[in-house]
Write a structure and sequence with these properties.
The complex is a heterodimer of chains A (about 450) and B (about 325). By secondary structure, chain A is of the alpha/beta class. Chain A contains 14 helices and 17 strands. The chains are: A alpha/beta (about 450), B mainly alpha (about 325).
Chain lengths: ~450, ~325
């Protein structure tokens, strides 16, 4: 068992990336996943994924059932949206995306409280389905990467033929502070995760998989190892217990840590023969194939300044405030509502903002923002950048509006993990400047 | 409190990340100030009570000048500790019997011209304390090269002497005794640069608290040692212990603002500065090899930062046309 808790760290290895180690604050790691019943009303934005928004196929007044498709995928990198309750379409409205700040359509559905499900795909053993059928079912189930990036999963399952995939990495790192939804999934739904992985390995035709877990979750490491030893899985699957560091769970740093490979600037992991998938996504894969269920719910960690932090299984589209109240409401003088973790999460302007597919956590906290002072060129940002960039020069260039220069310093390589701003002694909001710089650079390129 | 009772108006919206490490500019600055008190104490011990007045007038002049400059530029004055560092450092590289009016002129010049005129904290090109000293050296050359021997008691009369690196320096004891005196600081020299040991302890404090990294001091001192060892007739141990090398290596060359950002850049910076020290001391005629080596390298820092950058993750070298010919 000792092996579980000791990090295998070599003194000089080319697999290490820079990073930081914020206080973990995993307040809810011992709380079992609780189901939450039905919401009264859900708001479902039509773009809860990376890619083209889905297009609504229902109109006001329509009766819908749980799991019924209400919006159709639009293009290859897009997924459909399903109703998460049964009831009536109250209205189709415009909303501002909580993640990208883009204006998009949202369907508001009033629940009838019956939760009548639409007729589902027949539960099937993946062995009885062809590869194409499995991919089609995954796409139709609306499955996206549930680690937060929400990249459509069916795209990851169809790598171009000239890029053979030799390894799959299952991301159970959960390197963001506070969040425990993946941790609980690995403890309570480990078997489903492995079954989902099996489906993925078969579809991609890959014989090697790694399950990456940070060593601050020794119980999850143990559980996954035990489950692996019980059953026979195709190919070789190993559990990797990795030293806790932020942002280890970013797919590029993770695959470097495990395989020592670097994804070329501007490319996806499939370029170096790897697919990285979150544990929650595998559970969703299992549900879609073995149970025939589309993606209508996920585990959300509600944490921070709430009375009792919890891991809640909740339907999408439910207002955040209902989930907060289920945890006993807010304690203390909180003034920040964040979807996601404290390092990369997005602050929300309203308590009734609906949760989405990428919402792995609702974090309530007190704002720690301090006014920025002059950069003293201490190099803390350079030292902490997992992508080996020089974040402070982006601030200079953006402040001076020299956006062309940003390209010379590989700004597109920045994953916006926030390690630089976290460690900056002058409290400079580097990520904010980088975001502005990136978008101004994109505008220049369009011209 | 249930969310019903809360208004959305209270919610603050901002960019990620929403947590911050405990680091702050003030903490860094005050740690350096504390570490600098060690060599300052050595200065008072070896060169008498008068040095306390030098230190005080330098620090006060720096703070007041910064306050005045901020008022003139209509910026908010914030006590971040950086002016205190400049004041302390400036005092430590003064001859121990310099008149106080000269200290005030030099310290004010450091802050007003070298730091604030360039934009204040973080924007200066040269290390303010060193540039201030260089200013005094060219303005009052005689006063700036008048050294005294360590005094017997705090109020004792001072005796003029030569510093160990000067050609006219004579030492009565053995070599080992000389090294011990250099280590303790029992030799003539600037106020706070003579005690290598106390500076080293201060430097180690900075290393352990993570304020500075090992690269600049180790490579800087190492280069001076290696090259003076290679040159016949030079004593490498004398070269690293004497003069302001330790103070410069731990407290001035490591100045964030005026040193390169990246690890590799800092290594090049330290190597070149070390070579410059050797060149100035062995082949030059001016005193102050350390001060000028750092000032010259300060001028190269923007260039080093421009061309020495870390290799980004997933870097793909651009294809060269020459490769095709081979």
């Amino acid at each position: 068992m000792k092996d579980d808790t000791v990090v295998k760290m070599k003194l000089f290895n080319n697999k290490k990336s820079n990073g930081v180690h914020p206080t973990e604050n995993k307040l809810s790691s011992h709380k079992k996943i609780e189901s939450t019943g039905l919401p009264k009303e859900v708001t479902l934005p039509l773009c809860q994924h990376i890619g083209a928004p889905a297009q609504a196929i229902v109109k006001r007044g329509d009766e819908v059932k749980t799991g019924q498709k209400i919006a159709e995928a639009c293009g290859f990198v897009s997924v459909p949206i399903h109703s998460t309750v049964s009831g009536k379409v109250k209205k189709i409205t415009k909303t501002v995306s909580a993640v990208t700040s883009r204006v998009m359509e949202a369907v508001v559905i009033e629940s009838d409280g019956k939760d009548e499900w639409v007729e589902l795909n027949k539960p099937a053993h993946p062995g009885t389905l062809s590869k194409e059928e499995i991919i089609e079912r995954i796409k139709e189930a609306g499955i996206v990467g549930l680690g937060g990036a929400t990249f459509p999963t069916h795209v990851k399952l169809q790598p171009p033929p000239d890029k053979p995939i030799d390894s799959i990495i299952i991301n159970g790192c959960e390197c963001e502070p506070y969040i425990t939804s993946d941790h609980r999934l690995m403890l309570e739904h480990g078997e489903e995760i492995l079954k989902g992985l099996e489906i993925m390995m078969n579809v991609i035709g890959c014989k090697r998989a790694y399950i990456a877990i940070e060593d601050n979750k020794p119980d999850a490491v143990r559980n996954m190892k035990e489950l692996l030893s019980k059953d026979k899985y195709p190919g070789k699957i190993t559990v990797e217990s990795l030293g806790t560091q932020y942002p280890l769970g970013a797919e590029k740093t993770l695959l470097k840590r495990i395989l020592g490979r670097e994804v070329p600037v501007g490319c996806l992991p499939m370029e170096v023969g790897v697919v990285v998938q979150n544990v929650g996504t595998l559970k969703a894969l299992y549900d879609a194939i073995y149970l025939g269920k589309p993606l209508v719910e996920r585990v959300v960690t509600v944490t921070g300044m709430v009375k009792e932090p919890k891991n809640l299984l909740s339907r999408f589209g439910r207002p955040a405030k209902e989930l907060i109240d289920m945890c006993g409401g807010i304690v203390g003088d909180a003034d920040e509502l964040i979807f996601g973790g404290p390092m990369m999460g997005v602050t929300q302007p309203r308590f009734d903002e609906p949760t989405q597919r990428g919402t792995n956590s609702i974090l309530v906290k007190k704002s720690e923002k301090v006014p920025e002072s002059n950069c003293i060129r201490c190099g803390a940002c350079v030292e902490s950048c997992p992508m080996n960039l020089m974040p402070t020069v982006y601030v200079q260039f953006t402040k001076n509006e020299w956006y062309e220069e940003l390209e010379d310093y590989w700004i597109e390589n920045c994953v916006e993990c926030g390690s630089c701003a976290y460690s900056c002694p002058a409290n400079i909001p580097l990520v904010q400047y980088i975001k502005v710089g990136k978008s101004e650079l994109a505008k220049l390129r369009c011209k | 409190m249930m969310t019903e009772e809360l208004s959305d108006k209270k919610l603050k919206v901002s960019t990620s990340p929403h947590v911050h490490s405990k680091k702050s500019t003030e903490k860094i600055m005050y740690t350096v100030c504390l570490a600098l008190l060690l060599p300052a104490a050595a200065g008072v011990y070896f060169f008498g009570v008068y040095t306390i007045f030098i230190i005080l007038s330098s620090v006060i002049a720096c703070i007041l000048t910064e306050y005045a400059a901020k008022r003139l530029r209509k910026h908010e004055f914030k006590m971040d500790g950086s002016a205190i560092i400049t004041g302390l450092l400036f005092a430590l590289i003064m001859p121990p019997r310099i008149p106080l009016w000269a200290v005030v002129i030099g310290a004010s010049f450091s802050i007003a011209i070298i730091k604030e005129a360039f934009g204040g904290l973080g924007y200066n090109i040269f290390n303010p304390a060193l540039a201030g000293r260089a200013f005094l050296s060219v303005s009052f050359a005689g006063m700036m090269t008048r050294w005294i021997a360590p005094v017997a008691s705090p109020f004792a009369e001072s005796v003029t002497t030569a510093t160990p690196l000067n050609d006219s320096f004579v030492y009565a004891g053995t070599k080992t005794e000389l090294y011990m005196d250099l280590l303790w600081g029992n030799v003539g020299g600037s106020l706070g640069e003579t005690s290598a040991l106390l500076i080293l302890i201060g430097g180690i404090v900075l290393l352990l608290t993570g304020v500075i990294k090992w690269r600049i001091p180790v490579i800087y001192i190492g280069t001076v040692f290696a090259f003076t060892w290679l040159i016949p007739g030079e004593d490498p141990i004398l070269h690293i212990l004497a003069g302001g090398l330790f103070l410069g290596a731990f407290f001035m060359a490591t100045d964030y603002v005026t040193a390169p950002l990246t690890d590799r850049g800092q290594m090049l910076f330290a190597l070149c500065a070390g070579l410059l020290v050797v060149a100035i001391r062995v082949y030059g005629s001016l005193p102050g090899g350390v001060a000028f080596s750092i000032l010259i390298m300060n001028a190269f820092t923007p260039l080093i930062d421009r061309y020495i950058r870390p290799k980004p993750y997933g870097y793909v070298p651009p294809e060269k046309e020459d490769d095709k010919d081979e």
